[in-house]
Design goal:
Structural class of chain B: alpha+beta
Oligomer: heterodimer
Helix content of chain B: 10-25%
Distance between the termini of chain A: 59 Å
CATH class of the largest domain in chain A: Alpha Beta
Strand order of the largest sheet of chain A: 11-21-20-18-17-14-13-12
Helix content of chain A: 25-40%
Structural class of chain A: alpha/beta
Number of helices of chain B: 5
Largest interface: A-B, 26 and 23 residues
Number of strands of chain B: 8
Distance between the termini of chain B: 5 Å
Number of helices of chain A: 17
Strand content of chain B: 15-25%
Chain lengths: 533, 143
């Protein structure tokens, strides 16, 4: 890809217009309207050409003869890289005002998708999470606070516990106390647990989907803050195993990429990936052009070949099959690590989760309708799955009813946007949450949804050596740690307000939630009362 | 000896160091005014590109500076802090230093028949390119 940019720079030497700048790659005349409009203030533009160099799409162009900047708006994806880096704030990039005749049924997006499909004949791809206006239940749940009858706690003055343990807990706790109350011993069998300092874990994003620098930034931040990152299905590069293995949840997914005994044993926990919230029932496809030498080593596939993850795990067609893989992994790790099973939130999620716990999983990870992805068919991303809030409440309720809630921790993903969402998720029964998109945004992502192109201008979702160096792990990990620290402070403030001094006391405590603007059935599924009740 | 060091592994070739170097050595110190309404000075830091490799080059303030030995008029000298300093009033524009410098750290100012080079932003007090690099690809070593 950088050859293209190289050619561009070569052409710049002539510094005059070239017809290729205006010619698209398409065979036929495109009927699509530009998505964004670029407004350049000539009063401010100093012709430094930062915009031109920062845009991997080739939107901006400098003409040396006229000493002017030009742009081709149809190439702009609205990532805002140029606007952020313009040293004089000369650029405004905003949604293009051109419109078709307003129509509530045939929206601009629907029309554009139809035209795009008519021109390409393919499946429309997209990145990031579902952007459609499904009800966001977090915004219809409000938290409680202490007034008069119980005191609130100031987290700046009193200790506040966010430490969380992930894994199976014993059914009951038997304690043997020695004579004269000396030598207290726990008699019950204890299971492997992972300790995290805050109930926030970085979601599965593989090396391959994201750049080495982005992957390393997540690892560095997780280690520094005492939480975990998830390797996704792309393996864990050998160079990161010693330093960051103990902060990793390593994934075993349908393609089994990068799985070896060392990979499993170096990690804090192992996760079997069945599905992903952004594309339930769909596999993955890392195009060969992204499989560089380092990725091919990590994934253990030849360089330049497509990495195809099948839709199902072909050795798992039942709960019994799943149980076999769970115990195979426990055997491989000497029963020292919790094993997680990650599924997408779908219609029968509660029954499936119950089966997963009975199959021997120590953690159930559920990824909701709004979970992100590096690439997925748009039609799947926008229409398949159920909201995580409902799935979480249903799973927690079902596991409690069946008396097996203690046998597994619940990790949820897909749609967490801020610390209030985290605390509401915990009150609905989650042990901890996965954050993917918020972590990417902290590193620079603007959710332009073009992850699938491999030309991420922020250096996150790309393998182009010219683009990946834009993400400095030193800076990005600092930003991620700040995010974790900020959210943790806010969670402590909210807990203190409720008069609670440990996150453990809030877990599944729906009395601290009330619904606003929800229907009866929604309140029932969530298991919360309406506000005022 | 103090110097600015580039980290090529995180240099993204935005050329903002050049832009801010120009601003730092302008009269107004205002970015828009410096570029649009003043005689724009030359940047003393140059981003060298051989894509995807790219990094910024400027004076290394060498321990044994070839440019100082080559200078025929005594315009270049090493001061007590270890910096290689250019005295503009003595410069005759022979460009011997440019040929002697093994790093390409000296910039030719053709309009004035002189050279310009990194002065570590003496006037401002800290190297502006380091401060303004958006990706921390330039490090200031006080040495």
């Amino acid at each position: 890809m950088h050859e293209k940019i190289f050619e561009k720079i070569e052409m710049e030497k002539n510094q005059t217009g070239n017809i290729e700048f205006f010619l698209g790659e398409k065979e036929m005349k495109s009927f699509m309207l530009p998505e964004f409009i670029i407004e350049r203030s000539d009063e401010r533009c100093i012709r430094c050409r930062v915009c031109e160099r920062q845009c991997p799409e080739g939107t901006h162009r400098y003409d040396g003869e006229l000493d002017m900047m030009f742009h081709a708006e149809e190439k702009c994806v609205g990532c805002q890289r140029c606007a952020v880096f313009c040293p004089t704030n000369a650029l405004i990039v905003r949604p293009h005002p051109s419109q078709y005749r307003p129509n509530a049924n045939w929206t601009r997006e629907k029309l554009q998708d139809l035209k795009k499909q008519a021109e390409t004949g393919g499946v429309i791809l997209t990145g990031s999470g579902n952007d459609k206006p499904y009800r966001i239940y977090w915004d219809h749940l409000v938290l409680n606070a202490s007034q008069v009858t119980n005191p609130s706690i100031d987290p700046l003055r009193e200790p506040m516990e966010l430490r969380t343990f992930l894994g199976r807990k014993p059914d009951s706790l038997e304690i043997k106390i020695g004579e004269d109350f000396e030598g207290v011993e726990i008699q019950s069998e204890l299971f492997p647990n992972v300790m995290i300092e805050t109930p926030i874990v970085f979601s599965a994003m593989s090396y391959g989907a994201i750049s080495y620098n982005a992957f390393k930034s997540l690892a560095m931040a997780a280690k520094e803050y005492g939480t975990l990152f998830n390797t996704g299905e792309g393996g864990l590069p050998i160079s990161l195993r010693d330093g960051y293995g103990s902060s990793a949840i390593v994934q075993v997914a349908s393609g089994r990429f990068g799985v070896d005994p060392d990979y499993l044993n170096v990690a804090a926990a192992v996760e079997i990936k069945i599905g992903q919230g952004a594309k339930p029932g769909i596999g993955g496809h890392l195009p060969g052009e992204k499989v560089t030498e380092k990725i091919s080593e990590t994934r253990m596939i030849p360089e330049g070949t497509d990495a195809l993850s099948p839709a199902p795990q072909h050795d798992i067609y039942s709960i019994e099959d799943l149980s076999m893989l769970i115990y195979a992994l426990k055997e491989a790790t000497n029963y020292e690590k919790p094993v997680s099973v990650k599924i997408a939130a779908v219609h029968n999620v509660a029954a499936i989760a119950s089966g997963i716990v009975r199959a021997g999983a120590d953690i159930v990870a559920i990824d909701g309708l709004r979970g992100g992805t590096g690439a997925a068919p748009k039609i799947i991303r926008d229409n398949v799955g159920i909201p995580i809030e409902l799935a979480l409440a249903a799973v927690d309720k079902r596991l409690r009813e069946e008396g097996i809630r203690n046998k597994a921790s619940i990790l949820i993903a897909g749609g967490i946007r801020n610390s209030a969402d985290v605390i509401k998720a915990i009150a609905l029964g989650a042990d901890a949450v996965y954050i993917g998109t918020p972590a990417l945004v902290a590193m620079g992502c603007t959710i332009c949804q073009k992850c699938y192109t491999g030309r991420c201008s922020w250096g996150i979702c790309t393998q182009d050596p010219y683009l990946t160096r834009r993400l400095n792990p030193e800076i990005a990990s600092k930003r991620l740690v700040n995010l974790l620290r900020g959210w943790s402070h806010e969670i402590k403030e909210m807990l203190g307000g409720m008069g609670i001094n440990a996150i453990e006391s809030l877990r599944g405590n729906r009395d601290h939630l009330r619904g606003v603007g929800l229907e009866e059935w929604e309140l029932n599924v969530l298991g919360v009362k309406g506000a005022g009740e | 000896m103090p110097k600015v060091v580039a980290k090529p592994e995180v240099c993204m070739g935005c050329h903002l160091c050049e832009v801010w170097c120009v601003v730092a050595h302008s009269n107004s110190k205002d970015i828009v005014k410096a570029f649009k309404y003043e005689k724009t000075p030359h940047p003393r830091i140059i981003v060298d590109e051989n894509l995807p490799e790219v990094f910024a080059i400027q004076c290394r303030h060498c321990e044994e500076p070839d440019c100082v030995f080559a200078c025929i008029s005594g315009a270049l000298y090493k001061d007590e802090s270890g910096r290689v300093v250019h005295d503009e009033s003595k410069c005759v524009g022979c460009l011997s230093c440019v040929m002697a410098c093994p790093h390409g750290g000296i910039v030719i100012d053709l309009d004035n028949r002189k050279i310009v080079k990194c002065d570590l932003c003496e006037e401002i007090g800290f190297p502006v390119c380091v401060k303004m690099c958006p990706n921390e690809a330039l490090i200031y070593e006080e040495g």
